[in-house]
Amino acid sequence: MKFWFSIIFKNERKRLLIGLFWSFFTMLSGVGLLALSGWLITATALAGIAIGAGLIVKLDMYMPGSGIRYFALSRTIGRYIERLYNHDTILRLIATYRVTIFNALSHKPLHDVRQTSDSEWLSRLTSDLDALDSILIRYTIPTLATGLLLGVVSLFLCFIWFDFGIVFLVASTLAWLLLILFSIRQTRGAASQAISHLNHTRETLISHLKGAFVLNSQHLMSYHSQDTTQALSQFEQHHNILQKRIARIQVVTDSIFGIALVATLYASLWAVNQHIIEGPTAIMLALLFIGVAELLQTTPEQFSTWGKTDYASQRLSALANESSDNDSSDITAISEVSCTISNHPHIPASASRTISFNLSDSTPLFITGRSGSGKSTLAKLMFKLVPLDKSNASVAINNTSVQNISSDSLYRHCAYLEQTSSLLSGSLYYNLTLGLESIEDNRVFDVLSLVELQAWADSLPEGLNTWLGEGGAKVSGGQARRICLARLLLRNPELIVLDEPFNGLDSAMAERIFMRILPWLVLRKSIVLLHEVPLFIEQQSIDYRSLNVDLSAA
Amino acid sequence: MTSSTPSAPDTKAVSGVQFLKEQVISQRSLLNQSVLYGSLGSVLMIMQWLLVALIAHDTLVNKSPISTMPGYWLLLLAVSVVKPIFTWKQTNLAQDASANVRNLLRNTLLKRWSATSPVALQSLSNGALASQWIEDIEATDGYFSRYWPQQMLAVITPLFILITVAYLNWLCAILLLVSAPLIPLFMILVGMGAEHVNEKYALLRQRLAGHFLDRVANLSTIALLGAQETMSDEVAKRGDTYRNVVMKTLKLAFLSSTVLEFFTSVAIASLAIYIGFSLYGAINWGPAQSLTLFSGLGILLLAPEFFKPLRTLSTYYHDRASALGAANNIVSSLQHLEEQEAVLGDSDARQVTASNDVTRLMLKDAIIGYNGNKQKKPALNFSFSGRGLLVFSGESGCGKTTLLNTIAGYLHPVSGSVEVALKEANSITYLPQKAWIKNATVRDNLSVTAAFASDEEMLRVLEKLELSDELLTHHNGLDTVIGEHGQGLSGGQMQRIALARVLLNSPELILLDEPTASLDIKSRLVIIEALDELKSRALVVVATHDSELIAKASNHFDLTNKA
Hints:
The structure holds 2 protein chains of 2 kinds. Chain A is α/β, with parallel strands linked by helices. Chain A is built from 20 helices and 9 strands. Chain B has helices at 16-26, 28-61, 70-114, 118-122, 126-139, 141-168, 170-179, 183-217, 219-224, 228-280, 293-315, 317-343, 400-408, 442-447, 455-464, 468-474, 491-505, 521-534, 547-551, 559-562; strands spanning 350-354, 360-367, 380-385, 388-393, 415-422, 428-431, 440-441, 481-482, 509-513, 539-543, 555-558.
């Protein structure tokens, strides 16, 4: 959690101090209102009796009266400002945390990130991030403000009755710190146990659901769900332990403060008997104590989430701190691409023969094979989307293994159309120009006409600014494919790798589009991965080379 | 656990609110007990403050030495210690009720899913179902363990205090009543404001999280396009915009609780001043003259407690909102499942009959597919009896998997009929294209569908599928942990483990979807051989386009040609 704390102190120190002030101001007003009211009532009661007895008593009613009105108002206003201000801070802070994690993730090697794209991991990421707000709004601001309040109240007490002030300071500070430590220690273990059981339960359930096709055919679904219910009851048991512990700490705390209140009242009334302090002051002390105790009594609840936050922050720190891509050699131009694969587990044909190619000119290379033959793996190896194992594969650009080329420069010089179209939720223009400096609309329309999307884009309600839906949900598979292709056409890479560029397009359209982008393709080195070399390539007598990676091909 | 039955997932347009209320009914007695203890706690709280006031009065006004009233002191001590115990009971009981509700809900959902066709279940991602089962149900906790009891206490406790204060001084009671103008109205006001804000807030928050997750999920695309820097700025900017919008709403939203706060403060302040002036003798009309230090201090101490339950309730309001959101999710996913099941067609069209002699599979004018799907498929007619290897081939998308799903009973024919005759109705096994492997040992993986198989039998089957060498020499044999967290197996090895389950089980009808697609040569050969052998023991139905497997078929249908 240290890492996340340090971000608060580094980035938001000023806001933290101001937020702290308002928090303290509100607390003080609340305590002050109670204490002063108690004093006033007691003082007036005693004065009233004295007057009734015929004595002349002078009591200034107006000063404490306006003091009370002031505290009433300042508490309300303070609370409002404090809530707003600290909410703003926490939103800023979480935004900073989010960017920190995003930057860390985006500088990790891609093959690491790849494994993280499942929805379970992603949903955990959100809840982990949410858990971090406790660091500020539970552990930092209220704690510091309470500490400050204890100090100030004790100082005030010292002026009134020195001995009591000292005892109050020592006892309440000690009780408070012990309470924090005790709450953390009692709940931390149970909380992280509960979370890890929760995650286990989730995994068991997902595994169970994945087995639905197998289990259902044999009517074993209910029977097999026992695994899940067992995991669930383990989680429930630990969760229960945690909740019971928190409740127990709370009841002990409340009882102790109840006893302490009796002691305080006794001590202050004893002091009145002994003529150390006046009656009204005694009541004020008791009420002051009630006000402070009310704040301290929230400590167990506040710190009971420590284990959960700690668990989340550790997971996120692991993400944020993991080693980044440090292979730093850059490439400036591409003269040669070479690739040799043998015995790669995901490229079946490489078990029986070495698959290799060498690309040094701009004649397009067609790599063909059925689905499952490992074409995509080949492309992913080139782009470091799957880790390169030197024992079964070597992919080099200008004789430097891609492993040693910095991702930045690799991706700047080489473009890759992945087999599955991936659109970000954003507008059409946004998706097309991602990562590019500002591009004029007519250039965008030019490439859209190459992929036969110009008319469609014109017909959209907001043209290029039309939102494509979550993950491009509002476009068809064929349109998504062509948008992804157009996205690359706006760039100027030296090497282009297209994995099944015409997935979801009919063959006539595939031919038209291919012929239109051919001039762009032959300006650079290109590799096209397809099931088979299309018929029209032969018919149009286009110059090409090909490599078959099927098992049965020679 | 309570004896009440889990409320059946009655999904006829049940709203989230109704759903939660139904759950409350099932835990009524625990929740009522919780409220009872809360109310008792309130009574003790009133006693506590009155005792404090009484002791103060005695000492300061009557000038009696503190040692003269040990009874009061002991009583105060007892009340101070017992009150937290009542609060503790209140919390515990409500938490138990909530735990029961969550347990019931989870078991009900699990049962519902077990009874649902895997094809319908597939339409909701496993991750989404899991987060519903875990997070959504967990999110209902606060509603039962905090909000609901507090909703009752927010009426009961102030009422008790009002009665006490009215007994001490009726004018103060009226002042309290006026400063909280009709508590229910107040609650509705606070509630409505909070609800509105919560909804808006939740939506914005969801969008922000959605944006972030979308970008993280597409990190590789972003990196390939060299857009990391741009995206990092975008993530920061989105966070900023979100903050600005949220802060604007919060400025208004916090006002409602500030109003509550204001009334509390003003009420305490004016009570204090009124009591002060009355005691001083400056006010001498109404009940002012009967005020003493005891009643004055008592009222002052009780005044904040009058508002406290309301304030607590308003802080619990987000518990209600998140429970409501979760309940809506659960209800709508149950409705979605029902809709999906409706698309699967009429369950009577596929029948499994008991047959004494041979296994038989018969399709009569069967049109396979989803109800309401516009694409017309031709009707299929064929019949196959006895054992053998039945192969369906055809281009991808021609409906091979759909046909297997129909034979398995996960999907029903749009029209016509499918008849399966077996000696035992349960004796069907389905192997999907992607082998299902649990994160567990090989033994656990095998015993999932073959609970009574011995270690020897398992080893023999693994040997036959040429897995035993790999597992015995390199790993821990049957104790080898496989799956995501264990030994990584290749696709072919996993497919062979899945097939091992079938061999241990020897069902009458075996359905396999593309068992050899994208496998290494060795696995492919082993599987083809195993299937070739199985065909003498069972009716093996395979959907594939593997020519070698087609060559072994006793009967081969090309679904493409039928179209």
